[in-house]
Design a protein that fits this description.
The complex is a heterodimer of chains A (258) and B (299).
Chain A (H helix, E strand, L loop, with lengths): L7 H24 L16 H7 L2 H34 L5 H10 L2 H14 L6 H25 L3 H9 L4 H30 L2 H6 L7 H11 L3 H24 L7
Helix pairs in contact in A: 1-11, 2-11, 3-6, 3-8, 3-10, 4-6, 6-8, 7-8, 8-11
Chain B lengths: L2 H32 L14 E4 L2 E4 L4 H8 L1 H34 L2 H12 L6 H12 L4 H12 L11 H24 L4 H9 L4 H30 L2 H7 L6 H11 L3 H28 L7
Antiparallel strand pairs in B: 1-2
Helix pairs in contact in B: 2-12, 3-7, 3-9, 5-7, 5-10, 7-9, 7-10, 8-9, 9-12, 11-12
Classes of the chains: A mainly alpha (258), B mainly alpha (299).
GO cellular component, one term (chain A): plasma membrane
Subcellular location (chain A): Cell membrane
Keywords (chain A): Cell membrane, Membrane, Transmembrane, Transmembrane helix, Transport
Chain lengths: 258, 299
């Protein structure tokens, strides 16, 4: 029965990999409280980079922009993704999965440049609207997956029972399927929100000059110089994602593993 | 299934299908066309037809595609990027295997927590994770200074970690590692440990147990993870952009350059299509391997 426990070698190798995963993030967080312009050695504790952040209008505007874009994209992607998930589950359109999951399989840069090409050729001005249109197109698939995995585990006989008892298709959907699907839909919506607010690559190509999001702002900051202000934004961003993940795992523990 | 129900099904599929046709399929087709057009004078594309003496002529060209093969630079860069992505996949496999195996062999009640610890860093912003390595590899960083104490003591030239292919590959591994751990774990978790017990009873040593039983069974998990690591690594541009300097650039950087800086869209489209082609081939290959590799292909 040796194989039920990991051996000592295995555990130490595993711990090393965990350290590899966490040390870089810990470095970012620790230096966000460091009283030195250089991210090199510990000088003393300070809040000043966070204070500086609160007065940085570019960052604040970009963060607000990111939030609005993420909310609208997530809402649109949730509606379209739920429909897609339901349709894929019924499996009448054989080509639908390829269309819905295609954007997930493609490298981000390809989605970014092809949308840039289309927007410019069709004279769509680049800005918040083009960013939202782009975000929705890659979020639909993730929502569809979340909804579909929920559908796969659903007891079909409940719906049949409702129909037998005289419920119309719409009634059985609204009263039985929809409440049962809700955890999947909410998980999908939160995932779309996180993906949208985190996205850098696709936003980079579809943003144009006028509008900026938080990741774009961080990119232009780190392009110029490594400053502890970036550490402070990053730390706050980690805190936000951590909160979202906690909520997500409470609602649907399985969805995180996809 | 009656007619009304069929109609409802199609109506349900319609909105997402239309949206993705417009914002995924159409742009891809436009890119295909763009790769056969001439670049515009001020960036963008030149008109694809012109009218001369009342006659309509089409203006398409193969030049952009030929340029890919004429100049060794771009093919070289493509092979270099494939090499980087392959190396990243290999290192990810080597690092992911012990961790995935450790989680799979841990007690059930700890597994979810251990998995969550793998996923957590992966949910922090992509740029933040790159930025972390910019700090670690910076010339003032403890790592570089420490290493240069060693190289100095050995009488070697001081080394710089920032803006090197080492920096790029380290960060590529860091960003994509969870994509290998998760499918591998999903596979390893399903293994029947009684096989290992039986092998041991029959006199197999630990290495034989691993090499003859665990490893072959885990291949579908590795294939799934390899696809999830290889494809995004190949198309990346932010990591070489921030950590690679001039030596570390990859094909993604050139695509970005063609679309944003030099504004040669037709050639940028050619490079993007090559990347799309490689991606599609790999996805098909993975689907095939997944089918022949047994039932537990992971997710």
């Amino acid at each position: 029965m040796v194989h039920n426990r990991p051996s000592k070698t295995l555990v130490s190798a595993g711990v090393l990999v965990y350290l590899f995963l966490y040390i870089p993030l810990a470095v970012v967080v620790i230096f966000s409280f460091n009283d030195s312009k250089l991210n090199a050695e510990w000088v003393g504790f300070t809040w000043k980079w966070y204070e500086k952040l609160i007065h940085n209008e570019n960052i604040l505007r970009a963060a607000g922009n990111s939030l609005i874009i993420a909310i609208i994209s997530a809402a649109m992607a949730t509606v379209l993704g739920t429909l897609a998930g339901l349709a894929i589950h019924r499996g009448r359109q054989k080509w639908l999965p390829a269309l819905v999951l295609g954007p997930i399989a493609m490298p981000d840069i390809l989605i970014g440049v092809s949308l840039l090409l289309m927007f410019i050729l069709l004279n769509v001005s680049l800005g918040s609207v083009s960013i939202i249109l782009a975000h929705v197109s890659f979020c639909i698939g993730f929502v569809a997956l979340a909804v579909q995995s929920r559908l796969a585990g659903m007891d079909q006989s409940l719906i049949e029972a409702a129909r037998d008892l005289g419920a119309s298709p719409w009634q059985s959907f609204r009263l039985i399927s929809l409440p049962l699907l809700m955890p999947g839909i909410i998980a999908g919506a939160l995932m779309a929100f996180t993906l949208s607010i985190d996205d850098f690559v696709i936003t980079f190509f579809t943003a144009g000059v006028g509008s900026s999001t938080l990741p774009l702002e961080i990119y232009s900051m780190v392009k110029i110089a490594v400053t502890p202000e970036v550490n402070a934004v990053s730390t706050l961003l980690m805190l936000v994602t951590l909160t979202l993940i906690t909520v997500l795992s409470k609602i649907s523990p399985t969805v995180l593993r996809q | 299934m009656n007619r009304a129900e069929r109609l409802r099904n199609h109506l349900m599929a319609l909105p997402p299908a239309l949206y993705l046709l417009l914002f995924f399929a159409v742009p891809s087709v436009m890119m295909l066309f763009a790769s056969f057009r001439y670049p515009g004078e001020y960036g963008g594309l030149a008109p694809w037809y012109y009218i001369e003496d009342g006659q309509l002529s089409l203006d398409f060209t193969l030049e952009n595609w030929l340029r890919l093969f004429e100049s060794g630079i771009y093919l070289g860069l493509l092979f270099k990027s494939l090499g980087y992505a392959l190396l990243t996949t290999l290192i990810c496999t080597i690092m992911a295997y012990p961790l995935a195996l450790m989680i799979a062999r841990s007690q059930k009640r700890f597994r979810d927590l251990l998995l969550l610890l793998v996923i957590l860093p992966f949910w922090s912003n992509f740029l933040v994770r790159i930025y972390a390595w910019m700090i670690i590899f910076s010339p003032q960083g403890a790592l570089t200074i420490g290493l240069n104490h060693v190289t100095g003591a050995l009488g070697l030239e001081p080394i710089s970690l920032m803006f090197s292919s080492t920096a790029v590959i380290t960060c590529l591994v860091y960003v994509h590692l969870p994509f290998m751990i998760l499918p591998l774990y999903a596979n390893l978790e399903k293994h029947d440990n009684r096989l290992l017990d039986a092998a041991q009873d029959l006199g197999a040593n630990r290495f034989q147990c691993f090499w003859l039983i665990t490893w072959p069974q885990s291949l579908p998990g590795i294939y799934a993870g390899a696809i999830l690591v290889f494809i995004p690594s190949l198309g990346i541009f932010a990591i070489p952009d921030l950590l690679g300097g001039t030596n570390g650039i990859m094909i993604g950087n050139v695509i970005k350059q063609q679309f944003v800086e030099s504004r040669d869209w037709p050639f940028g489209s050619v490079l993007s299509l090559v990347l799309t082609g490689i991606t599609l081939l790999l996805v098909l290959l993975a689907a095939k391997l997944g089918k022949t590799g047994g039932a537990n292909s992971g997710t």
